[in-house]
Amino acid sequence: MSKELQRVADFQTKKSVHISMTKTTHGDFRKVLFDHDLSMQEVLELFALLVSENDDRAIDIIKEAKHNKRSKVLSRLKESEVEDLYDTISQVDPFSRAQGTGG
What we know:
Blueprint: H1 3-13, H2 23-35, H3 40-52, H4 56-91
Helix pairs in contact: 3-4
């Protein structure tokens, strides 16, 4: 198959994915892969394949990511609830007469 025909076939059969990560994570990931003479493409393609095959190792990573995401969301909720509580407390004047006491 010619290179041009291969490019057309790849274009029609492959998907492109954009991934955003911190500079530190990207750099550390890239260094480890470089040390093993691998590209991000090769590793991420293998990981996606393992996930699609329900490989136990890959599914454990998926579960860990889900747990991390849930923990992050719960942490944000707790922070928000604490802020709401402090806002509510700051609006209460303990020296004012209670409402509804006929005052």
